[in-house]
Design goal:
With 180 residues, this protein is α+β, with helices and mostly antiparallel strands. It is built from three helices and five strands.
């Protein structure tokens, strides 16, 4: 298994809707396992394929890092029903260091294929419901910041850009100091 590069804002793949998976091949199996390793290495609870540069409708999730054999792999997921609402803080591996309160459905029913190509129904509540909605948003080219009002989104993006510039400058300075 391999750790994959997580694409970050403003990479256009994050805003591009993904395509359905037509055939579940050995490459899809490998990608799913690599995505799980990447999700764990990055400290996330979910990861969509387009976040690692692959424009297909697949994501991996595990709301409990202590139980690594309970990962979910959802292919071509569709939200069937949603009910209730809850507002919680949300972040994203593609926007590190940024978070905001996002209103989402408290309970969701999702239908998706597994790695064997079998259709399954998944019930998500609270955190799992949030993960399902967040990752399906990714597959549709949406980020969590698209779910907050315009003024807050602009503030979050300015904050993110400021952090990126500071990080880039720190790397540049440490590189020149080391003679690189």
């Amino acid at each position: 298994m391999a750790i994959l590069k997580v694409h970050r804002v403003p990479d256009p793949i994050l805003k591009t809707p993904t395509k359905p998976v037509k055939n579940i091949t050995s490459e899809i199996h490998k990608l799913a396992h690599d995505m799980m390793e990447t999700m764990y290495a990055a400290g996330g609870v979910g990861l969509a394929a387009n976040q690692v540069g692959i424009g297909i409708q697949m994501f991996v999730a595990n709301p409990d890092h202590d139980h690594r054999n309970q990962e979910l792999i959802l292919i071509n997921p569709v939200i069937v029903t949603q009910k209730g609402t809850i507002s919680m803080e949300e972040g994203c591996l593609s926007l590190p260091g940024i978070s905001a309160i996002v209103k989402r459905s408290k309970d969701v029913h999702v239908r998706a294929l597994d790695l064997d190509g079998k259709s399954h129904d998944y019930e998500g509540r609270d955190l799992l419901a949030r993960i399902f909605q967040h990752e399906i948003d990714h597959l549709n080219g949406l980020l969590f910041i698209d779910r907050v009002n315009l003024l807050k989104r602009r503030r979050l993006l300015r904050e993110y850009e400021k952090q990126r510039r500071q990080f880039s400058q720190m790397n540049f300075q440490s590189g020149t100091r080391d003679g690189v």
